[in-house]
Amino acid sequence: MIPDEITKRIQQTRRRLESLHDFLESSDFAFQHPDEVLPGPDPKASKAISEIERAVGQVPEALKQFYLLIGSVNFNGHHADWKGCDYPDGLIVFPVEYAREELAEFLHDEAEYCEAYGSFRIPIAPDYYHKEGVSGGMWYGIPVPARSADPPLLEEPHKTTFLHYMEIALSWGGFPGLEHADAGHTWPLPALRKAAIS
Predict the structure, then answer these.
(1) pLDDT (tens digit per residue) in 54-82
(2) In sequence order, which residues have a C-beta less than 8 Å from that of residue 115 and are 6 or more positions away?
(3) Cα 7 from chain centroid (whole Å)
């Protein structure tokens, strides 16, 4: 996948996230962290990416463009009238600052870190248990240095790439846990899906 194609997909993803955010807000969805929903790119994102690349190698193009064009997203939350799904798995992509903090951990004891994880990895999101305050597994992460422009998203149940995970999440209206919801759940899935279509 060439950089222009990735940029185009990230731009489309941004529009879909903005549309979904507007729908959720107008539906009185209670975001867990309102200031983190779609705050926009970090002005220091380019500097942070360069810092990571100098220390450990190339950041995958898809993640790099996400940081530069979208920044981060956090749709975690609840709605009083939407029932029947204990783990909706609201879409989260941490801001680039999490990557810088993880880099500090890596550089503090590289040998121990690599023994535990194999190589440096950028934190992307907590797993669906942790999103609901329940002790769960390892966070979703992306290995660096990059081996492909659209990298694998480690620990995520679909065993897919970063960009494809975004597509999966948006195909479920930003809440991929609805794939496993009770048959009679009251989440407005058709409206969520419509809002997430660019």
Answers:
(1) 999 999 999 999 999 999 999 999 999 99
(2) none
(3) 17
